[in-house]
Write a structure and sequence with these properties.
With 338 residues, the protein is α+β, with helices and mostly antiparallel strands. It is built from 7 helices and 14 strands. A 5-stranded mixed sheet has the order 3-2-1-5-8. The relative contact order is 0.10. InterPro entries: CcO_II, CcO_II-like_C, Copper_CuA, Cupredoxin, CuRO_CcO_Caa3_II, Cyt_c-like_dom, Cyt_c-like_dom_sf, Cyt_c_oxidase_su2.
């Protein structure tokens, strides 16, 4: 029995060591924001570049490790001053010039075509969908200019059709990034940058501001959804041809007009332009740009506790608004669905 234990203990040690070394290599290989789990051609190009960089880095590491072992094991031999200079020159030229030059050339060979694929270059056939996204502290304004559709904190794309995303900022520098669909692009006040994305199949993805933009930077998420062509067309049509929205009844309508409507827009009801458009609020999966689920309880909690849930956002507290009135507003907001 002792001999069996002596044989199994090293095996067990090797097993757990292998698992421990494998875990870091698997980190971030999956999930809603994994750039190594691409869901579109642009994202696939980015992932390919990453894997080539990883593979090249492994080769360099192996070469350095091999040379280190060789240097440790070889016997030291005396060299003349001239021989020492010649050896030093070889290492400087090989390790300091040749190796970096080859590395950069290889990476550029794979990286430049990837960057080109995300540029808004002319294409034949169906033209890319044009979408304009404005970053705010801390939410996303999403516009479809050619279709005259406006929403917030959600981006809906058609499957198989490129989309040219025009990004800018209303305040500080933000950065638009949907890891599973492509690279990221900075959103700079007074400047419009464009990045091309495409979803290969239907599904929900997560976008995130990837440039620190203030205290609630981490809570500036973007719900991204790719729909089949017919479903996307229906999504647009419902927002273009929806019935007229009636104001909230009674006291709720007066409170909304005097408070909420000064910043929020609801088509046909208010024209605020400093906060998220609420015209299709009931269709959004989250509130506060990913802070809380948009359901019965989440909506009411957001109206009462938004400064606690997302401290520093521009919406003032509603402490002086009676609970009954807030409930009426919540019930009305739940009807804002095309």
């Amino acid at each position: 029995m002792a001999s069996v234990k002596q044989q199994t203990q090293p095996q067990a040690l090797m097993k757990w060591t292998t698992l421990a070394l494998a875990v870091p290599s698997l980190t971030a290989c999956g999930g809603a924001q994994s750039a190594l789990n691409p869901a579109g051609p642009m994202a696939q190009d980015v992932a390919n570049v990453w894997w080539w960089m990883f593979g090249f880095a492994v080769l360099v590491w192996l070469a350095v490790a091999t040379l280190w072992v060789y240097a440790m094991l070889r016997r030291s031999q005396p060299h003349s001053a001239e021989q020492a200079k010649r050896i030093n020159r070889r290492w400087v030229i090989g390790g300091g010039i040749v190796l970096p030059s080859v590395s950069i050339a290889v990476l550029l060979a794979f990286g430049l075509p990837t960057g080109r694929s995300m540029l808004p270059l002319p294409v034949e056939g169906e033209q890319p969908l044009r979408i304009r996204i404005v970053g705010h502290q801390w939410w996303w304004e999403v516009r479809y200019p050619d279709q005259e559709v406006v929403t917030a904190n959600q981006l809906v794309l058609p499957v198989g059709r490129p989309a040219d995303i025009e990004v800018t900022s209303a305040d500080v520098i933000h950065s638009f990034w949907v890891p599973r669909l492509g690279g990221k692009m900075d959103m700079i006040p007074g400047r419009t940058n464009v990045i091309r994305l495409e979803a290969a199949h239907a599904g929900a993805y997560r976008g995130q501001c990837s440039e620190f933009c203030g205290t609630q930077h981490a809570f500036m998420a973007l719900h991204v959804e790719a729909l089949e062509t017919s479903d996307f067309a229906a999504w647009l049509e419902r927002r273009q041809q929806r019935a007229a929205i009636r104001p909230a009844p009674g006291e709720a309508g007066a409170v909304f007009a005097s408070r909420c409507g000064q910043c929020h827009r609801v088509a046909g009801v208010s024209d605020g332009n400093r906060a998220p458009d609420l015209t299709d609020l009931a269709t959004r999966p989250t509130l506060g740009a990913g802070v809380i689920r948009n359901d019965h309880d989440g909506l009411r909690r957001w109206l009462r506790e938004h400064q606690t849930l997302k401290h520093g956002n521009a919406m003032p507290r509603h402490d002086e608004v009676p609970d009954a009135t807030l409930e009426q507003i919540a019930q009305w907001l739940e009807t804002l669905s095309p």
